[in-house]
Amino acid sequence: MHYTAAWQQLHWSDATYVLMASVRTLQLSFTAVLLGTLLGIPLGLARALSPVMRVLTAPLVDVVRSVPMIIQLIIFDTCLSISGWPLSAFQLGTLALGAWMAMVTAEIVRGAYEAVTPSLRRAARSLGMSSWQELRVVSLPLTLRGGFPAWVGAALCLVKDSALVGIFGYIELTKAGQILNARTHRTFLVLGGIGATYFFICHVITFCTRRIERRMAE
Amino acid sequence: MIEIRNVRKSFGETTILDGISLDVHQGELLCLIGGSGSGKSTLLQCINGLEPIQGGEIHVDGVDIRSKSVSINHLRRKIGMVFQQYEAFPHLTALENVALAPRVVARVPRRQALEDAHRHLAHVGLGDKAASYPRNLSGGQQQRLAIARALAMEPRYMLFDEVTSALDPELVAEVLDTMRTLKREGMTMVVVTHDMDFVRESADRVAFLSKGTICEIGSVQQVMLDPQTDIVRKFLSRRSSS
Ligand SMILES: Nc1ncnc2c1ncn2[C@@H]1O[C@H](COP(=O)(O)OP(=O)(O)OP(=O)(O)O)[C@@H](O)[C@H]1O
Ligand SMILES: [Mg+2]
Q1: I need a labelling partner for A174 at 20 to 30 A (CA). Which of A75, A129, B58, B181 fits?
Q2: Residue A202 CA to chain centroid, in angstroms?
Q3: Where are the domains of chain B?
Q4: C-alpha span between B16 and B210 (Å, rounded)
Q5: pLDDT value for A31
Q6: Are the C-beta atoms of residues A151 and A105 closer than 8 Å to each other?
Q7: Quick one: pLDDT band at residue B117, thresholds 50, 70, 90?
Q8: Class of the CATH-defined domain B2-37+48-215
Q9: How far is the CA of B41 from the centre of ligand 1 (A)?
Q10: Which atom of ligand 1 is nearest to B194's Cα?
């Protein structure tokens, strides 16, 4: 009589599975960061430049930044299915994570814009620049440069939060880890490896952005 | 010529300039002196429209700075300004600092603007600092950079607001030398300063500002050596004793 394990051993093919899952984590994170940044920069500038915009957008920014991502995902998901607009898990994740990234980016941009001294702007205006020209060649470059480190921090946060989209059926890194773990019960090996993969991804991002930061600081 | 007529300026309830009238003639160096908080900086900023005025008129070469037909941005190209805290653009090299406004505002082609910028840097003695970033320049060098940046717009007038006050004593001379060079070349200058030696030696005329009005104006002889009012006498004796 043969004893059969209820679970199966790890195979080398599982490495490919994890690799594919990391790619999916990166795809989701990249899309959400891109979407959030493209929306967040103009939103942040609008908030910095216009008191009316600041008041109007304050509730949105505050809510999206403070409500836990898991709750936002569930609310998004529920709203979308009620409205008869079923989205794929990838699209859902992009929307929810992208919205979070946009609000965080907006606050980073607003803070960095306000860190540029009014007297520097005055100096630019004294040379005959219009307020738009001043924004384009002085305040905006200084804002983007000043906000860059915080923006990288937000992007790293988003990579980790993208794990939550696994709950909705998007097989990204963490979800893949859970599936492998359920099959093999090699908890330490599997989840340790998944954790190390996250660490590696974040490390590479940090490494690259440090170089950019150093180049900007000259 | 800059004509300032009965200008009034207030921040909220507090009146800072209370009926200032003053002409700045072509080619002269006019020094503005007065106690701290007397409104000297404010007056300079009113001249190029950085601060709006609540009354009176300012004409630059016959054009009202508040006229609707001439853009204030266009008028500011005629009026260079240098600030106490240098205000160099920190993300640009010295050369780019100088070339920026000509490129963006006057739409000078890039090559031409950089060429001109080299010339202006050399003019203020920074010919070898073109590739340096402001944070790697001394205060005196940053201030001369700011002067070159203003000169790059080929202004007819230059406004200086306590441009040596933030400098270490040993760096003051190089900036004053640059200003003297400008004067020799015929630049029309309005200089706010606490440096009475510079006033005595370089000013064509001196105006003393107090409580939002000009209480004395005239040649160096008249104002510095033979002041008519107590307030100027007191101010000058305090300065010379310190
Ligand atoms: N943006 C502002 N809002 C309110 N009050 C202001 C503002 N700018 C200047 N003031 C006030 O206006 C007065 C004149 O200021 P100003 O800077 O023109 O003086 P100043 O003669 O240049 O003095 P200093 O020699 O100290 O530079 C001061 O009392 C100052 O507090
Ligand atoms: Mg002042």
Answers
A1: A75
A2: 12
A3: 2-37+48-215
A4: 10
A5: 98
A6: yes
A7: very high
A8: alpha beta
A9: 7
A10: 25
CATH number for the domain spanning A154: value is: 1.10.3720.10
The residues near B13 (Cβ < 8 Å, ≥ 6 apart) are none
What are the strands, taking DSSP E only, across A24-123?
none
Confidence grade of residue A12 (pLDDT, cut at 50, 70, 90) = confident
Average pLDDT, chain A: 93
Closest by CA to B88, choosing from A124, A146, A204, is A124
How much is the pLDDT for B57?
95
Q: Which ligand does the CA of B42 lie closest to?
A: 1
Q: What CA–CA distance (Å, rounded) separates B130 from B145?
A: 10
Q: What is the mean pLDDT of chain B?
A: 94
Taking alpha carbons only, the member of B116, B80, B110 closest to residue B98 is B116
CB of B226 closer than 6 A to ligand 1? no
- Indicate the residue of A120, A128, A218 with minimum beta-carbon distance to B87: A120
Distance CA B217, CA B23 (A): 11
Residue B40 CA to ligand 1 center (angstroms) comes to 8
Ranges assigned E (strand) in chain B: 2-11, 14-24, 29-34, 55-60, 63-64, 79-82, 157-161, 188-192, 205-210, 213-218
Residue B77 has phi, psi (to 5 degrees) of -65, -25
| B80 CA: distance to closest CA in chain A (Å) | 7
Closest ligand 1 atom to Cα of B38: 21
| pLDDT confidence of residue A6 | 59
Q: Cα(B37) to centroid of ligand 1, in Å? A: 5
Domain hosting residue A152, numbered range: 2-217
Cβ-defined contact of B79 to A133 (cutoff 8 Å)? no
Q: What is the pTM assigned to this prediction?
A: 0.91
Domain count of the fold of chain A:
1
